[in-house]
Amino acid sequence: MLPNILRLTVISCAIGFAVPQGLASAAVPAAPRPTIVLVHGAFAESASWNGVVDELAEDGYAVIAAANPLRGVASDAAAVAALLKTIKGPVVLVGHSYGGAVISAAATAADNVRALVFVAAFAPDAGESCLALTARFPGSTLPPALAAPVPLADGGEDLYIQPDKFPQQFAADVPAAQGQAMAATQRPIKASALAEIAGAPAWKTIPSWAIYGTADLNIPPAAMDFMAQRAHAKRTVVIDGASHVVMVSHPHEVAALIRDAAKR
C-alpha cells in the first residue's frame, strides 16, 4: 500500500526572511502512479474490460487488459507474472471471476503488485479450487447452462456456455444484443482449471478490494461475501441486481473501486 505523500511548499516572504539554500528543492517527489493490469475470467475475454479501460484512461492511468490463457491456475498465473515483471513501477492487479484465482497466484511471483481488486471473482485459499468454492454456497446455475465439453488433443476438455443461455446466465443486465455478441466471442476454459487446487494466496499479504453483484448466477454472492471478508478487503462494493459481468454493466463503479485501490 502506498504511503500518503506530503508536499512541502516554500513561500518566500517580502519581509527579508532568507530561504535556506536547497530548501526549495527539498519537496518529496510524487510517487509514480500504478499501472492497472486487468485479467479476465472464464467465458470472457480482454474486451470485457473496455468500459473500465476507458474510464481509467481518462484519469491518466496506464492500463493493460491481459490475455488470460484459461488453461490452468498455475500456468495462467505464470503468464500474468511474466507480464508483471516487464512493468516498471507499482501495479494494481485486477481479476474477474476465475481471473481472481489467477491474480492471487500471480502476485506471489511479482514484487511490484501493491493492491488486488476482485471483480465478481474467486479468491481461493491454499488447497481450495474454484469449483469447491462455488459448491460451498447455493445459487450458481452455471452447470446446466454449459455446452457439451469439447475434447482436446491432450485428453482434457474445454468448456463453453451454451450461446442461447449465455445472456441470461452470464450477462443478464447488459443489452440483449451485447450479451449475444459476448456469447459469440466467449473464450473457453479448460475444465481442469476450475478444479485446480490453489497454492498460497497473495491476498494474505497484499491489500485487497472487492466488488460483485447480488444477481450473479455464476459465483454465488454468498461465496463472494465470504471470500471478501476472509481476505479482510479494504472495501467491498455490492451492486444490487448486477450480473456476473459487473465490469461490463457497471464500469463506472468498478473503475472507481480500482482508483480507490490505486490511491492507497
TrEMBL record:
Domain AB hydrolase-1: 36-256
InterPro entries: AB_hydrolase_1 (IPR000073), AB_hydrolase_fold (IPR029058), Sec-Metab_Biosynth_Hydrolase (IPR052897)
Signal peptide: 1-26
Molecular function via GO: hydrolase activity
Alphabetical UniProt keywords: Hydrolase, Signal
Keyword Signal: yes
Protein name (record): Alpha/beta hydrolase
Species in which this protein is naturally found: Roseateles agri
